[in-house]
């Protein structure tokens, strides 16, 4: 499915809801439930492959998993590409294209240092990815500067980042650690483009986030954490001689 189809699903106030998956099987279940698009979760995919999140998994294994997911469904797939695995914009665009991705998450954390990249540096990286991908990729530019800093100053700086990322070619921005409803609403108004919000535990919920004007809602690793906990409880019961079914 095309990037155009995925891009059209980003409607402020009537957001695209993404139930993030980690393999072909979960992708098929999401499609069967009626979702118009599938998104991967890097933490979940990496864990399924035996690695920690934060680009600890080999890029080749992450893209191979993405390709299996994209091949398994007929809806557009957006891939959590973390911070790009050290690839150039052209290399990243090619790897995503080969995997069958219609979109990607592209974060501004430098995993080599653990720091958020300067705005101009990340904007340049987004511009390079856009130039290589053309209109064939929906770029969701993740903004990591709100981690532990939900202040007015952080909000203003985050909005400036959003505008720079839009100017560089991002279709949507994702202030992943912004949780306060009032600040999310201010961010949406200030940014002036499509905004992705995370459906964290204790968040305003799907309807509440939609009312704040976001165009996209991600569950991230939420479903994986939930399912993993259920599995952990079930196997503990089996170890005690109790079948869960």
Automatic annotation (TrEMBL):
A Pfam family reported for this protein in Swiss-Prot or TrEMBL: PEP_mutase
CDD domains noted in UniProt: ICL_PEPM
UniProt KW keywords: Lyase
Keyword GTP-binding applies: no
Molecular functions (GO terms): lyase activity
PANTHER family hit by this protein: CARBOXYPHOSPHONOENOLPYRUVATE PHOSPHONOMUTASE-LIKE PROTEIN (AFU_ORTHOLOGUE AFUA_5G07230) (PTHR42905:SF16), PHOSPHOENOLPYRUVATE CARBOXYLASE (PTHR42905)
Protein name: Isocitrate lyase/phosphoenolpyruvate mutase family protein
Species this protein is from: Amycolatopsis melonis
